[in-house]
Structure formats: structure tokens, C-alpha cells
Amino acid sequence: MELESAYLAKVASQLIVISSLLSGFSIAVLANLLVTQSEDKILDIILKITTIAAACFLINLFSMTQVLLMSTEGYPIKVELNDLNLPKMLGVISFVLGIVALCILIALSGWTKSKSTGIFTTIVGGLTLIILLLSM
Questions:
Q1: Model pTM?
Q2: Does residue 56 contact residue 94 with C-beta atoms inside 8 Å?
Q3: What pLDDT, on a 0 to 100 scale, did the predictor assign at position 108?
């Protein structure tokens, strides 16, 4: 199924906004974890997961910016819809991976406080991931 250029531009612009916010959030969490002096193993894992989330959202941001530019009328180079396949695929895959990383971040976050909080956040993160996968 081929999508119209105008529709692709609208979707890309929405994903740009969402990815900008989520990458900013991820980078803010990452910065806080980097200044923490703890040698806790769970914080190290959370740091790595947050790095993955931030990177995925940034990849999506730039991929969707390319889709938006290429699908907007007046783009100086002739563009076929097939030319948009790679940035669309990269954008969608990185967006989904970023969301999955955030679900994992939610699941792991409570374990830094206590066992009961860790169990609660793991359940919430797991349910979020399940609902995400079912909605796709």
C-alpha cells in the first residue's frame, strides 16, 4: 500500500514532535544518571537502556525530518515514493525500539528503591510493553 506524500509529511511531522520530546526526556534522564556517583549495577543497566532510547529517538527524528523534507511539495530533487522507503523503515524501527527501551526503563526504575517498588514498576513496564505490542 502506497501512502500519499501529503499524508507522509503529516505523519513525519507528528513523529518529529513526539521523538523530540522523548529524546529530550531520555537525554535528561541520561544526564542525571551520568552525574550519579553510584556504582550500582542496576543504575549501569538503566544508563545503557536510556542511552539506547535517546539514540533511537534521535535516529527517528532525523529519519522523519528527511521524510518530511522529501515529501513536501517544492523539494528541489525529484523524489519517488520508493526513495522514502529507507528513511521510513529506519524511522519506524528506531521509534519502536525507543519505546521498547522506555518500557524497559520503566520496568527497571523501581529496583533502585526497593523490592516492592521494583515489582510494581516491572508489572507496569511489562503491561505497557504488552499493550504496545498488541496495538501494533
A1: 0.86
A2: yes
A3: 94
Q: Domain limits of the chain?
A: 5-135
pLDDT, averaged across the chain: 90
3-state SS record for 61-86? HHHHHHHHHHHCCCCCCCCCHHHHHH
- Cα 1 to chain centroid, rounded: 25
The pLDDT-based confidence of 2 (bands split at 50, 70, 90) is low
